[in-house]
Amino acid sequence: MTTAKVERLMNLVIALLSTHGYITAERIRKSVAGYGDSPSDDAFSRMFERDKNELRDLGIPLETGRVSSLDPTEGYRINRDAYALPDIELTADEAAVVAVATQLWQSPELVTATQGALLKLRAGGVDVEPEVGVPLSAPAGFPGLRGSEGVLPVLLSAINAGKVVEFDHRSSRTAPFTKRTVEPWGVITHHRRWYLVGHDRDRDDTRTFRLSRMGTDVAAVGPAGAVRPPDGVDLRAVVTKAVAEAPGGVQARVWVADGRATSLRRAGTSTGPRTLGGRDGEVIELDTGPYNGLVREIAGHGADAVVLEPAALRDEVLARLRAAAGEAIR
């Protein structure tokens, strides 16, 4: 099937789906890209007949009928109700399996099948990996998981078996690692990052851990069946709350270029002018507020806003900028 034919068929499907009534062949010839270059009426008729048969062979419910009660001319449309995919429902465990499988099916022999499977699931409304999105053209791994790809299968296996996990974790890129012992309840994605939710035995509290900040030595310990998530717990709500909470009492110092980053200036207090990298600007103090929102706001100004402190906030902004640069390169 040539590229021109594929484009023509796609254009035809879009046209037939965008109307509630029937479209005549003549109107299709005039308005659907790919048919207007037909050298004659006979050539168009043959092409259109082949295309209709091809759509029906693909299972697309092409219907024929009168254009209107006053116009007996035969027209065409696609039955939307018959064309729409039925709802596809996966349990949390099934969606997790699909997510892991797409990470593992990256060999040259399987990558095409992987991408096709993801497209079909997404077309059916299945959020295989919510908010993160799998880069169909770059099977190098998932955003937010790079460097810790081996952690996810261990955690999912432990969750499935109901076993406790032990791992090293740090609160920021510059903080030291500490040993954690956790009863894992589930793994959730939020804003392109992966998080483990569970009960931290050392702190006797529900905690959230970003996978990219875990050490690579993650181990399941103890007997199977020892861990059971509380009934009714909303893992996504736990992660959303944890990410949104700001470190208490932390003030950020940010340099902003003259005439730039107006929204940051309005939100902060100026502490005086400063030249940075040969550019004039000033330093402002900001309440960190919702941490993830501040990271997104500062990163959105690019080189016009530079975090001076705290180091954890600077690292978060740099990580977001590098991730954005990597997506642009791909």
Automatic annotation (TrEMBL):
InterPro entries from the UniProt entry: CBASS_pafABC_assoc_protein (IPR051534), WCX_dom (IPR057727), WYL_dom (IPR026881)
All copies of domain WCX, residue ranges: 250-325
Organism annotation: Mycolicibacterium chitae
Record-given protein name: Putative transcriptional regulator
PANTHER family (UniProt xref): PROTEIN PAFB, PTHR34580
Origin: domain of life: Bacteria
Domain WYL intervals: 151-214
Pfam family, one: WCX
